[in-house]
Every structure is written in C-alpha cells, then in structure tokens.
Design brief:
The complex is a heterodimer of chains A (942) and B (304).
Chain A lengths: L5 E3 L11 H10 L5 E4 L3 H8 L10 H18 L2 E3 L12 E5 L9 H17 L4 E5 L13 H10 L9 H12 L6 E5 L8 H9 L5 E6 L6 E8 L4 E7 L7 E8 L5 E9 L5 E6 L3 H4 L4 E4 L8 E3 L7 E7 L14 H7 L3 E4 L6 H10 L4 E5 L6 H12 L3 E5 L2 H5 L11 E7 L10 E2 L19 E2 L1 E5 L5 H4 E4 L5 E8 L2 E6 L14 H13 L15 E3 L1 E5 L5 E2 L8 E3 L13 E4 L4 E4 L20 E5 L6 E2 L1 H22 L10 H29 L6 H9 L4 E3 L4 H21 L8 E3 L11 E5 L9 H12 L3 E5 L14 H11 L6 E3 L26 E3 L21 E4 L3 H5 L16 H20 L2 H5 L2 H7 L3
Parallel strand pairs in A: 4-5, 4-6, 6-7, 7-32, 15-16, 15-17, 17-18, 18-25, 34-35, 34-36, 36-37, 37-40
Antiparallel strand pairs in A: 1-3, 3-33, 8-9, 9-12, 10-11, 10-13, 13-14, 19-22, 20-21, 23-24, 24-25, 26-29, 27-28, 27-30, 30-31, 38-39, 39-40
Chain B lengths: L4 E3 L8 H26 L15 E6 L11 H4 L6 E5 L6 E6 L7 E3 L6 H18 L3 E4 L3 E4 L4 H11 L17 E6 L5 H14 L2 E8 L1 H5 L6 E4 L6 E4 L6 H22 L2 E6 L4 H14 L9
Parallel strand pairs in B: 4-6, 4-8, 8-9, 9-12
Antiparallel strand pairs in B: 1-5, 2-3, 6-7, 10-11
Helix pairs in contact in B: 1-3, 1-4, 1-8, 3-4, 3-8
Classes of the chains: A alpha/beta (942), B alpha/beta (304).
Chain lengths: 942, 304
C-alpha cells in the first residue's frame, strides 16, 4: 500500500473480509423481529395489507450499515497503523544513548524524549540492552546497561537542566561502559551547541569502534540567550546572542521583571542577517530600573534566555558628609541642601548621626555606600581617613565640594584628584580685574562629554588646581579661562571627584542649575555599590545559599535539592548542577549567578568523523497512529446507529402515546444529546445572559415581607391556610408597624423557600408524604435561618389511649428526615411570650396544646429577669392548636371557623399568638434585650 | 415492548370445565354491574301506557256497541247516564332474546379499554335481562334456554351461562317466533355478507333485532406502528406489517365502512344498531338499546 501510509500488524486477518458476502447474505435473511400483537379484526386488515408484500428482508441501508460495521471490526482486528515509521537502523549488540539535557534541550525536550523512546522501542524489539546517559546529570548517575523498560522509565524521569552540558566526562563514562559491549550502536542525541572539549569527548566515545552511529541534532539552532546587561545612564542595556550562521533577521522582546515577577519594562533586540549579537535598551526611569530583578526573552522558555540581576545594577546608596550642617533653621544655606535635592530621585541618601567625622565616616562606610559626597570637608581624622582611603581604593566614589575649609586644609594625595593651591581664587568683585567666569564646553574625555554646557552659570570663586602635566586628563569640566571646575581621578578601583566650587550657591550659581543635577547623576551612574555582600566581611569569601534559581524552562523557582551554596570570591564561577544559575544569598542581598557571561557564544556542534556508518536524524515526534481504537470506536458508533434504526423500524419513536415510557426515555436522551450539542458552544452565552426565568416571581416574593404556607394539595386545608394567613396579615397591619404582603402558597418540592421568613405547614395526614428531596429542601431552609411552623390541628383528635393521631404520625414521619434540634414547650420566660403581647399560652382554634420550640439549652436567666437571654430564632415550631383555623377570615373579614370552645377571646389570643410569633421571627432576640429597657432606665436613675 | 392489545382469557383451552369455572367466576360480578347499570336506566321506565290485557286499571271509556256485555263496569255506569267499560293496562309479556357473542375474538382487550369485549357483551346482555325481567318480559338466550318470565331473570340466565358446557359460536336462530325481539351483542368482525346471511333468518321470521357492536378502541383507531406481526385470535392466522402505521388510514376506512354497511342494513330493516366502545360506559349502550326497544312498543319488527 504505497499510496496509503497504512500498515497492518496482522495482515492475515484481512482475509476475514472475504466473509463479508456471507454476512451480507445472512443479514438479508434475518430482518429485525417484529412485535407481535393480537388483533381480532385481522380479516379486515388482511384486505388492506394485500397491497404490500410482507418484507422478508432487511432494508438495504441497514444491511450496508451492518456490513460496514463488520468490515470495520475486521480492519480493527488486523491492527492497522497509519503513517508507520520506519525502524531505525540500530544493529549492533547494544544501544548506547547519550542524551544532552542541558539548558539548550529544554525547549523541545518532549520531542527529544520521543526520539529517544523510538530508539529504545527499536532496541526493545531486538531485545538489546540499552545504555542511557544524560550529559547534564550528576557524574555518578547510573548509565546501565538497562533493559528497555528500565531505560524508558529513566528516560521519562529525566528532565532538562538549566546548566551547560558536560560531554567530556559523561562520554568518558559511556566509553568505559561500552568496553564491555563491543559492537554497540551509539546514538548521540546532541543539543546542537559546541562545548569546549567536544573533540576529545567524541574521540573517547567513538574510539570503541561502534557498529553504527546515530547522530541526532535539532534542525535549527534558534535559541537566544541573554549574555549581558548594564544599567547605563540613559537606559538599561541588554545584549542577546544567537547561534552563528543564521542568515535571517530576527527580533525578540526582552522583558524586565521585578522581584515579584511583574513585568515592568521591555526592549526589542533585533538581529540583522548573519548577526549573532543584538542589543536593546530599555528607556525607563531610573527608579524603575532599580526594581529590575530579572530579564527574560519572550517566547524562549529556557534558562539562557533568563538573566537575574543583583545589586550591581540597583539603586546606589550615597553618603552625605558636611561639617556645617548644624543650622537647621536656614536650610537653603546648608551645604548639602542642593546635593540632597539633586540626588533624591535616583539614589538613597545616608547621613551620619554624628557630626564628628571620626565617628561619622566609619558609620557611613559601615552602610557600604556607592558614593560619598563631602561638602566642604577639610581635614579628616587619621583613623577615619585610612578607612575612607581603603573604601575608595576598593571601588568607592568620593565626591568632594570645595569651600573655605577645603581651601584652608592641606593637600591630600589620596582623597583629592588633583593637587590644590592653598587658598581660593575670587573672580570679579571690587578688588579684582577679572570677571566671573562661565563654564566652557565639557571635555570630550570626561563623563560629562554629552551634556550641554550651561550658559547661565557663572563662577565667582573657586579653588585652583596646581597646573600639572596630567591636569587635562583629570579635568571633567572647565571654566572659560581654562581652569578646571570639576576634576576627577581614579584611585585604584575607586574614583575621586572634586567640584572646585561650593555645593551651595555662594561661590557659583552652578548648584541651582539643572546641569548640576545631571552632573551628579552621571557621577552616581559611574559609582558602584560597595555594599554587595560579596565584598563584605573584610574580603573573606562567604558561602551564599541558593535563593531563587532559574529552572530549565526559564522560570524562577525555589532552590532544588541538588543546589549547593555558592562561594562568591569575585571570580567567574562555573555553572554546574550544584550551582545552577540563579540568585544566591537572601532577601537582603543577592548574588546573581548567570548561565551566560559576556563572552559566551552559541556555536554549532561539529559532527565527529568516524569510520562507522552514521545515520543522521532530526528530533521529531512519532507520528504513527494506531488505528485500532478509532476503528473500534467507529464500529461502536455504527452499532448505536443500528440499534436506533431498529428501534425506529419497530415504531419506537412514532408511537409517543402508546409507548409513554420508551418515548420519554428516547425523548430524554435525545434532549440530553441536543442540550449537550447546543450548550457546549453556547455556555458562554448562557453565562453572559443574566436574566433567569423566575426572576419576576423572585422579585415579587421579596419586595414585601410575606408569610408562606405549604400547599398540601387538599383544597380545603389550603384555603384555610391562605385565609388564616390573610387574617393574621390584616391583624398585623392593624396592630403593628409590620405590613406584610399577600400570603404565598409554596410547593416545597419546587418553589424557592428562602424568600419567606416563616412557612406555615398544616399537616394533612391524607396528603401524600413529601418526597425526600422536598424534605431536604425544608431542612436546608431551616438551616439557613427560616422557620417552619408545623400545625397538626389535632388537639382534640387524639384518642383517650394516647395513640398518636394520623397527623401527628405524619409529622413524626416528616421530622424523622429533618435535622430537628431539641425541643421544649415555650417556657414562661421565653421571648415568644413577650415579643409583642404578653401571652401565657398560644391558643389557636383549639386550646391546650403547647407550642414547641427549639430548646434554649444554654440560655440563662440567673437574675430573674422577665425574659431569658439567648441567641437565635427557633427554626421549628410545632403546635396542634390549628392556628390558621383561628386566624381565617373571609372576604368581609368575618371569622370562618368557630373556636373550640366558642370563646371570642380565644380568637383574639390566637391572633396575638400569631403576632408574637411573627415578631419573634422578624426581630429575633432583639425583644429579649428590649425588655430590659425599664430596668436599665431605672438603673440610670431616671 | 409491551403490546397494545391482549387476549385476556386463554383462547386455546377449550376445556369445558375450565371455561365453566371461568364464566362462573365472571358472571356474578357482571351481574352486580348489570344491576348497577340498570338502576340508572330504570328511572325513565314508565310502563306500557297502553290498554290491553292486564290486571291493573287503566281507564273508563264509553261502551260502544258490539262489545261484550260482561266488560261493562256497572258500578261506574250507575253513577250517570252513560255506560262505561273498564279498560285494563296492557300487560302482555313480550319475548326478548338476548345473546352475547362468546367467540374468542371477543376476549380482546386493548390497553385503552376498561374491559374486554366479551365482558362488556355479557354485562349488556345481563343488564338487559335484569331490566326486562323486572318489567315482566319473557327473556331467553338462544341455544341456552327457552323464554321464561322470572323476577330474577338475570340470575337465572347467569346460572345457565355458568353451567353451559360449550356455547356454539353462532346460535340457531330459527326457532325464534314472530313479534319477539332479539338483542345481539357482538363485535361483528366477520365480513358483512356473512353476518347478513346469518341474521337473514330473523328478517324472515319477523323478529326485530337490536345489534350492539361492542368494539375495542384499538380496533377502531389502529394505534400500531412499526414492524408488527398481527395474530387473529380466532384462526391463529398471522400477518406481518413492515410499517404498520402506513395502513392505519386504509384500515380505518374499511373498518368504518363495514360498520356503516351493517348500520344501514339494520336501519332499512327497522332494527337498531348501537356501537359501544369498551373504553366507554356500558350504560350508554344500554340506554340507547332500551330506548330503541321502547320507542314503538316492540312491534315495529312486524312491519317486515
């Protein structure tokens, strides 16, 4: 079958297709069995039926359907496979698989696993042992030989690692293992990137003269990596690299994320054709740049595309020192005022608590600032000076401003960039010929080279540098006459900068211009935080625990079990399984350990030359598909269709009246199927549509307070219930502030109960027992705060022998399925007896039955108050007094039923009982608090 | 799948004893039901309202010449100048034959029906027996008993039916006399020609017949659909319809045509023809038959 990519596991079964004509013949002969009916007027029917021959054969389409079903089953039994893959040429005595599972494998790891699975499956078919090694695992990981199942388990358990591969050692171990299995097939599943030492590794591996070599590499090396980032003055620069030899241009977006993983900036990096390096810049405010915690290339779920950032790119700490800070009442004259204002937006200020320099400088240095600004500080105490010099030499940036004290102090080789002449120079003024000098263009070599010189700045006084040969190199800014205004010099790792004017606007108006801010900002940019923990504790290397690690898929994850603390010594540390890339340290300070360094490059792997035959493959999923399942499923579907057709032919669907149950079942299933089909795509719409059927009733039910009664189905009982609640409603409107709406009859099986505060339930022993579902609804209603008032109406129906009346028996049956709390007759001090009227008893049409309510077990009435305290409202009340009978009134307001005994006061008491119950329902224990009011007032001395 | 119709009694068993027991257990119930139905009808029963041979006084009328002198009521005539004759109400007993079809096809009862056709036929016959014997008519069951007069006519008929060994499918109608009525409750499912031939003897004898066609709703509406095999309860013949619902209309036409033909034939002969469905009440048919029997005094049959 070359035209169809189909192969069969058991082609011989296909001979079964020969049997199809036989099946056809059999099927034609056996029509579906008819239903038999006795029919007396057969002789009349005979005359009609003569027109049509009785069908002895099935209809052709049914036969076709069944034939198709048989053919499908035969095909399925033949075990067909669509798109069968060819077996890989794995001869040899064993299969040695070396799989790269470094960071470059992460993106299509599944595909690599699928490829390896195929190789192992072929080895299994030939029952060869399998050696399996991963190049980014621990060096002591077991490599086999395994049988195929164990190898598959290991393969599936393996996962890509966010570290570079170590081919040399793993290949060496594999070569050692191959020594015992000569003539094996070696399958190299490489990630396509060259690593140092590849040649030696391949030589070691292939030196054992393998039977054949399978060389699997990815089709394209399209991974991107972030190998550098820099927090520059104008923005945050990121550098991305890709593999060499890609002739197409490419664009990628690099996102910057804060420590909570929120994206706060992004940049586009564009590779031109053939370019391997691209740079992007995130032009976001400085403050936001300091929040960057990690960078990641969008759509590159692998470790190299993620770069974590540590303190080196963060906000700087700037220490401020001054000796004239005492006068707080004149802030504008404070030397640090303008500096503080200029630095505030992009640096953290730290100021010493003590004005004493010998204490202030160590205090500042302990906080490891990136920069220290000294405003007109002249002489520094020796101990402090030594510390300061050390700090500068280790990379600190010291910015000094001139002033009268500095001018008076002697020269300081370490802490001043240039030698100064003693004293200061005044420009202009009454005794001078010179004019105040403006600032000339900034020298191109200095850090201010790209700033516009401020034309409005004039300098009237400055300290002068000794003219030395290298003065020009140290000059960052000049006055128009060539004398330096700002000088700077390196002192080992650090920088010393001197502004030859004061930081307040006395010697010049530079501090009150925007240029001053820009200049300070530049200097801050040049500084580096000295507070990274790597250089703490006097330079001894500390061990940093893993904090956040980069996973193989590029995410930041908590440390894995394998990760070990890193020893930050300043040198570039290798990325290994023990030290995967990520952040080390703690929340206070982290050290970024990144996969790629600035000189990293992606170079394609070189295929080693070998004498053995080499099969080159690409990573791919197994596309062969076993058709057995779908075929059997199709056959089953046809079987269902066949059954439906047989039903249809026997008239199941066309006799809805005569076959109610069958038709109902069929209709239900059809409706279900239709609902599934229709609802699946429409479910969104269904959600979107807010209005529901029954909304109107619900709104009506809750717009006024209503009492509800249970519809028992017995018209006389229901009409009395309705009339009773109507009478009570009228009484309530007349006597109280409560004005309830029309009473509502509810069907407890279907209606929503939650709208009603109280449901009156006359127990009718003749009514059908409520279903379990209905009782469960009542239970839920009671649990959610509703109250049910059961009325058995049989106070005088109970026989002398004490046997329960049918209504009581029915009530017991109902309560059996409810969660009924412990009950008690209403005690004399219960709030029900006082919630509106003071009532000793609760008569209805009959008198004498107690009203049962939930027992208030924890209620206390220690102080002999008129009412007991206690929370909650009883969810259940039971009486036998026939309340509704006593309340019931007709349209003209006359009582419908006589009370027993016929006492008009009893009806009044019944109505009062109803009022008390309703008030109790609606106000709860509020009334039990309310009864204390007279006592409270008395105590207040009213 | 449940069937629409069923034969409620075993048809194949022709065992006399079993049959007798069956009927014995059936008839008392029927009798009770028949009584119940009669009680609803008897309210409209007003006697003969005719003069004739009887015992009760009917009217005084003036004597006309030619009448026997012995008929003059002297007590009445003495009161004035005329001579009166005392008439008595006609109380001559009339003979009504009753017969319900016992054939197996009557045992059919569909799901929509209340009772089987046989049950309905017997109820109707016994109810009429009760009705007629209360009013002193002579009732008989062709092939089972001669006409008799008894207050408990229905009971007696019932006991005859219980003890009848094996009733013929078609009774011999040749010994029926003139001026008698016969009530036949059957389903009349035989071809009309056969029925007419069977009943023709009645027309020749001048008997007035009241035919009650007891029919099952399923027979009339034909609610069958799908592939159905129909069995005749009498002959056991079978017939399979591929799509039964296709034949419903034709069948109904034929069924109704048979009924109309029979009905028209009866009308022409002055007979009554009543259709009673087993899903309706038996009293409906009873009222109709009763009305038909009383409308013209039971002598209309003599016109033939």
């Amino acid at each position: 079958m070359s035209w169809l990519p189909l192969s069969f596991g058991f082609p011989l079964v296909l001979w079964g297709l020969v049997a199809l004509p036989v099946i056809w013949w059999l099927l034609r002969l056996t029509p579906p069995k008819p239903q038999t009916e006795v029919f007396p007027p057969l002789r009349i029917l005979q005359r009609v039926l003569k027109k049509e021959e009785t069908p002895h054969q099935s209809p052709w389409w049914l036969t076709l359907l069944r034939l198709l079903m048989a053919a499908l089953i035969i095909f399925a039994l033949a075990d067909p496979v669509f798109n069968p893959r060819e077996r890989l040429p794995t001869g040899g005595s064993a299969l040695a698989l070396v799989v790269d599972n470094g960071w470059a494998s992460a993106r299509d790891w599944d595909r690599r696993v699928a490829t390896a699975e195929r190789l192992i499956a072929d080895a299994e078919a030939a029952s060869k042992p399998v050696l399996l090694a991963f190049t980014a695992e621990k060096p002591n990981a077991e490599i086999g030989p395994f049988d195929a199942d164990a190898a598959l388990d290991r393969l599936r358990a393996a996962e890509p690692r966010p570290i570079p591969v170590d081919r040399a050692s793993v290949y060496g171990r594999m070569a050692g293992a191959l020594g015992a299995l000569p003539g094996a097939t070696v399958a190299i599943l490489a990630d396509g990137l060259r690593t140092p030492g590849d040649e030696a590794a391949f030589q070691a591996l292939l030196a054992r003269a393998p039977e054949s070599v399978v060389w699997v590499t990815p089709e394209r090396l399209d991974m991107l990596g972030l190998n550098a980032s820099a927090n520059e003055v104008e923005g945050f620069d990121v550098t991305a690299i890709r593999a060499a030899g890609d002739p197409t241009p490419r664009q990628a977006t690099v996102g910057a994320f804060d420590d909570k993983g929120r994206r706060i900036a992004d940049a586009v990096v564009s590779f031109g054709p053939g370019e391997t390096i691209a740079t992007g810049r995130m032009t976001v405010p400085f403050e936001m740049r300091n929040d960057f915690a990690s960078l990641a290339i969008d759509g590159e779920p692998q470790a190299a595309a993620v770069r974590v950032l540590d303190e080196n790119s963060k906000r700087r700490r700037v220490g401020l020192l001054s000796q004239a800070e005492a006068d707080g009442s004149q802030p504008l004259l404070s030397p640090l005022y303008y500096i503080r204002a200029a630095l505030q937006p992009f640096a953290d200020m730290i100021e010493p608590a003590s004005p004493d320099l010998a204490e202030a400088i160590p205090e500042l240095l302990a906080q490891k600032p990136a920069m220290i600004v000294m405003a007109d500080v002249g002489t520094i105490p020796d101990t402090a000076r030594a510390l300061l010099v050390d700090w500068v030499h280790e990379g600190g940036t010291l910015v000094r401003f001139a002033g009268s004290r500095l001018a008076a102090a002697g020269n300081d080789e370490d802490l001043l960039p240039v030698r100064l002449r003693l004293g200061e120079r005044a420009l202009g003024g009454a005794l001078s010929w010179t004019e105040p000098q403006p600032v000339s263009d900034f020298p191109a070599t200095g850090p201010f080279a790209d700033l516009m010189p401020p034309s409005e700045v004039t300098v009237t006084r400055q300290v002068l540098a000794e003219p030395t040969p290298d003065i020009v190199d140290h000059t960052w800014a000049n006055l128009a006459d060539g004398t330096p205004l700002v000088t700077g010099a390196r002192r080992e790792d650090g920088t010393v900068v001197l502004f030859h004017v004061t930081p307040e606007a006395t010697w010049s108006n530079l501090p009150i211009t925007g240029t001053f801010v820009e200049m300070l900002r530049r200097i801050v940019q040049l500084s580096r935080n000295q507070g990274s923990i790597a250089q703490s504790a006097e330079g001894t290397a500390t061990s940093l625990a893993p904090y956040r690690l980069i996973a193989a898929n590029g995410g930041l994850v908590p440390p894995t079990a394998d990760a070990r603390p890193i020893t930050a010594t300043g040198a570039v540390l290798p990325v290994t399984l023990e030290n995967p890339p990520g952040l080390y340290g703690s929340e206070e300070g982290v050290y970024a350990h990144n996969l790629l360094s600035a000189d990293s490059a992606f170079e394609p792997i070189v295929q080693p030359a070998t004498a053995a035959p080499v099969t080159e493959l690409r990573y791919a999923f197994d596309e062969s598909m076993d058709l057995k399942g779908p075929l059997v499923a199709a056959a089953l579907l046809l079987m269902v269709l066949d059954s439906l057709a047989v039903f249809w032919m026997s008239g199941m669907f066309s006799r809805p009246r005569a076959r109610p149950r069958a038709a109902k079942a069929a209709a239900t299933s059809a409706a279900l199927a239709a609902a599934l089909i229709v609802l699946a795509p429409l479910s969104d719409q269904a959600h979107a549509q807010d209005a529901k059927p029954g909304d109107q009733q619900a709104i009506e039910a809750i717009s006024t307070t209503r009492f509800a009664y249970v519809i028992t189905g017995d018209a006389s009982v229901d009409s009395i219930s309705r009339a009773g609640l109507t009478g009570l409603t009228a009484f309530l409107i007349e006597k109280t502030a409560l004005e309830p709406g029309e009473p509502a009859g509810v069907d407890i099986a279907t209606d929503e109960l939650a709208f009603y505060p109280l449901i009156y339930w006359p127990i009718d022993p003749n009514a059908p027992m409520p279903t379990e579902a209905a009782i469960a609804r009542i239970d839920a209603y009671m649990n959610q705060g509703g109250t049910v008032l059961f009325d058995t109406r049989d106070q005088y129906a109970t026989g002398l022998d004490g046997a329960a009346s049918p209504a009581t028996q029915r009530l017991r049956d109902i309560l059996e399925n409810l969660n009924v709390p412990p009950l008690e007759p209403v005690p004399a001090d219960h709030v029900l007896t006082k919630s509106f009227f003071i009532l000793p008893e609760f008569p209805g049409r009959f008198n004498g039955s107690p009203l049962w309510v939930e027992a208030s077990l924890d209620a206390s009435n220690a102080e002999n108050r008129p009412v007991r305290t206690g929370d909650g409202v009883s969810p259940i009340m039971i009486t036998a007094n026939d309340f509704a009978g006593a309340w019931a009134v007709d349209e003209s307001g006359n009582a419908m039923l006589p009370t027993v005994p016929s006492d008009p006061m009893q009806r009044v008491y019944a109505l009062r009982a109803g009022v008390n119950i309703m008030m109790y329902m609606l106000t709860g224990n509020y009334k039990s608090d309310q009864v204390h009011v007279p006592i409270l007032l008395e105590r207040l001395g009213q | 799948m449940a069937q629409i119709g069923e034969a409620i009694a075993p048809v194949a068993t022709r065992d006399a004893l079993a049959r007798g027991r069956l009927r014995a257990s059936l008839v008392p119930d029927l009798l009770v039901e028949a009584r119940r139905i009669v009680n609803t009808v008897i309210a409209g029963w007003h006697g003969r309202r005719k003069r004739g041979i009887g015992e009760n006084f009917w009217q005084f009328r003036p004597y006309v010449d030619g009448e026997a002198m012995s008929r003059i009521d002297w007590r009445r005539s003495a009161r004035d100048d005329h001579t009166y004759v005392r008439d008595r109400e006609w109380e001559a007993a009339h003979t009504v034959w009753l017969w319900a079809d016992p054939s197996p096809s009557m045992l059919y009862k569909s799901r929509g029906a209340i009772v089987s056709k046989e049950s309905r036929g017997l109820v109707l016959a016994l109810a009429l027996a009760e009705l007629l014997s209360r009013s002193g008519e002579r009732i008989g069951w062709p092939g089972l008993s001669d006409p008799f007069t008894a207050r408990n006519g229905a009971e007696r008929l019932a006991s005859y039916l219980i003890h009848a060994a094996d009733l013929p499918a078609k009774p011999d109608l040749r010994n029926l006399r003139r001026f008698s009525d016969i009530v036949i409750a059957s389903d009349f499912l035989d071809p009309v020609e056969e029925t007419m031939e069977w009943l023709d003897v009645l027309t020749r004898r001048g008997v007035r017949a009241h035919l009650i066609e007891v029919c099952d709703p399923a027979e009339e509406t034909f609610p069958y659909a799908g592939r159905t095999e129909f069995t005749d309860p009498e002959g056991g013949a079978k017939l399979t319809a591929g799509r039964a619902e296709q034949f419903a209309a034709d069948y109904r036409n034929l069924y109704v045509a048979r009924r109309q033909e029979l009905s028209a034939w009866c009308k022409r002969l002055g007979w009554s023809f009543t259709v009673n469905h087993t899903d309706r009440l038996a009293s409906e048919a009873l009222v109709k038959v009763h009305a038909a029997m009383t409308i013209d005094g039971g002598y209309a049959g003599a016109r033939v």
